[in-house]
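Sample A.
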Amino acid sequence: MKSNLNTDIADVLIIGGGVNGTGIARDAAGRGASVVLVEQGDLASATSSASTKLFHGGLRYLEQYDFLLVRKALKEREILLRNMPHISRPMRFVLPHVKGMRPAWMLRIGLFIYDHLGGRSMLPGTHVLDLRTDIAGGPLKAGFRRAFEYSDGWVDDARLVVLNACDAADRGAQVLTRTKLVAARREGGHWVADLQDTRTGAVVQKRAWALVNAGGPWVNKVIDALDGVVPPDPVRLVRGSHIVVRKLFDHDRAYFFQLPDGRIIFAIPYQGEFTLIGTTDVDHTSDPATAECSAEEAAYLCSAASDYFSQAVAVSDIVWTYSGVRPLDDTLEGNASTASRDYHIKVSDQNGQAPLISIYGGKITTFRKLSEQAVAELGEYIELTGQPWTDHTPLPGGDFPMDGRAALADKLAAGYPFLGLEVCRRMVSAYGTLAWKMLGDAKTTDDLGQDFGGGLFGCEVRWLVAREFALTAEDILWRRSKLGLVVSPAQAAVLDGWLKEVGA
């Protein structure tokens, strides 16, 4: 086991600033490891901000007999909801029964297993709904009579990544965004990595006893940059696309829709005024950075939603789309929707030194468990001073009860009445108890700095730059928030200009 007496050599260098990379960085830093994390773009700029934004066990995975994955995800679901009540919340899902698809007895059995497989303790169990009388039936076509209602969770995926990175940095990790791995090699029992600043082109070297490859869909590209490492196993890249439309219903529950081709989609309340619909599962053969919702995928999602909602959803109704690419095990046959979502951690070393830990696959719901397991692997090579801790420690700003978000927003509004309740609710949903620190001693809107629209003011922008690694308007409007849905292009341009002026 290597004790890092040479302060010029970090314990671990992590490649990739998505949910897995930042989760590993947070866990390792919290156990006393010296950590450097590099991300070629912004944090959560790829797959980790392009999920369906759910903490869920994966009800459909029961059909694939993937009970171990479902159980693992269900156990994690409640841990995560408890530790980040600002950026996540429990959500009820409505699954209409459709004749000719999965029979009612199958759905009952599946949901019974789902309720009990993961040791559910906080969330309510499954209920049967009469869609002719329940409010959930209102937006649906008249032919739907019965539905099953069950529990899962919603999460702001991009903020999950950012807050993991913030916590890692608070615990001593060095987080470098816009920094790309050019090459790395084993030398003297450790790794020597060439890292390039993608803005300036400057190249610096970092040394580390261990290297973690959390490159997501670029996991094999990272390995290609490592001198002397054997060619990687093949990876299947699968694109998931989503569409966002103006809200199709007024209640706070989501829908789980079965489709004639055997697939499923979700329709989820989103950012107050919108409905999120997704996802697709399509093989992706080009650079993951180019992923976007195709015309065929958009039409498919609109048609699928229109089969259920009385208000037809047209392509012209779409206000935003996004896509992400997931790296899955390429050894399995079948269509993209049935490929396993479980993760794999592969470790290789050089005579017991300079380990390479590569992360393949994974669901956002299991990122914490994956991180904990990866750090346990690191512990075979570097000295860790602490025990596993992330299962009982909230993310920054999440130190309040799971059901306390509304009360916290009311308290914030009482202290800053000039903001208005809606802005306070957004701030609590983003920053939790840190909202007070971010707002400081402001007494009027004039004290908040420049108004960029959508309730975004200069003091929040400065906070995001100083504390959350934001550099551009896109970083702020589409990842640290979703204010891009309400801020005009002109306002976004003003924000970008302001950021350049202050040297972000």
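Sample B, a different protein:
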Amino acid sequence: MLTKVWSVANAGLKAIEVEVEVNVASKGFPGFHIVGLPTKAVDEAKERVRTALVNTGIEIPAKKIVVNLAPADIPKEGSAYDLAMAVGILACKGEVVMPQEKSYFFGEVGLDGKLRHTKGVFLLALLAKEMGVKQIFVPKLSANEASVIGGVKTFPVHDLLQLVRHLKGDRLIEPLKYVEREKVIEEAEVDFDFAEVAGQEQAKRALEIAAAGGHNVFMVGPPGSGKTMLSRALPGILPELTEAEALEVTKIYSVTGNIEPGGGLVRRRPFRAPHHTTSKMGLIGGGTKPMPGEISLAHRGVLFMDELAEYSRSTLEALRQPLEDGIVSVVRVAGTVQFPAKFMLIGAANPCPCGFLNHPKKACKCLPMQVLNYQKRLSGPILDRIDIHVSVPFVEPFKLKESGEDREKSGVIRDRVMRARRIQEKRLVAEKIYCNAEMRNKQIKSYCKLTPDAERLLQQAANQWQLSARSYFRIIKVSQTITDLVGEEGISYNHVAEALQYRIREE
């Protein structure tokens, strides 16, 4: 007897329908065979499914069982086909009645028949809505991922026995209630409030501008000056995720298995802080089966790279395309996979190997050649792609003891950031982008209007510092963000002057 069950394969951030054909033959040697380019994890489903059915109280017939995963030319990976295979065998035995309407079955089955948390359920639900599939059966621990997708009934399955009773009509599983996405967005929990940071007013201002416009930042300062503290306080002033942004982030976290069991829509802007020993593949993404790296996990959030100069040269240079285009392309023999990577890069570094170059209290012990070699680890093209460069100087110890009651709290700064973002969203709504940092040169020319004085100042700076075209336009974008923070229409002389202050290195 032949039964067809539908499941889904994940290829990058795309989901592909997979037809699981299960045939239980009355002739032939008894056995369990899986075809259709299965990997080892898929092939091991034979033992998982067989044992799970036995422990559920259902005997597998001593017949030849062949499972075909179609289309057969696409490699099948992971354990998500377990449920579809089990349902197919049960249908061939007459233990269950297949739903009249097309349904997806997706999930890993444990040896006791219980369904385990399985990554990729969110992509499954998106594909179901796209293909007009009205119902999906997924593990209970993963079902919340799909609850924000309207028009699709999500049945949370605890174990095979529960599913058998449902398909027989004996005891129906209640589908999850649809949850409106805007109701699950939450404010971020942060490690530090900006009011806790003593001094560093320029750095705070720079991060406020960066948060308002989505700009990259590079901070240079001695050890203990507050670079890490400032970076970890940044999420507290970032605007909340929009509905569209939350969906984008959830797709990435679902396919990588970074959503905890029982979790649903990703509600907070990501904050990723990879160690400086992270490999290029770990940062950018890749592998035999390409998977997103840290820069994609930081999509629509913050990628904090402490000790930026300590990363390998090849790893840093691999950031060029993502910083410019907001995507990363991973090329393999089987094809090319693209992952989104629109993130705010916050880099921090010491001025020299010992960290005390130009320190007011401690002498630098580095030789001039050591300082030069250290600073040359960061190439010009990489630094050119960072909008804001700011110095984080040494803070006198007595300032650290101050209460900080008179300092601005993160909530106050965040209100200004939100107002600036709303201005940008309104201005750029036709471009389908969210902030100034995402503007291309053509859009900058269309939306960023400089006063004559501002234009002259920028031109003078470009001539004096020999600014690259990239730096020229990035200064305009930062100037526009400063303008948005004060709620003015045109970019004035003062706005350009402040933006130029954040190009602290010589071009």
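Observation for Sample B: The mean pLDDT is 92.
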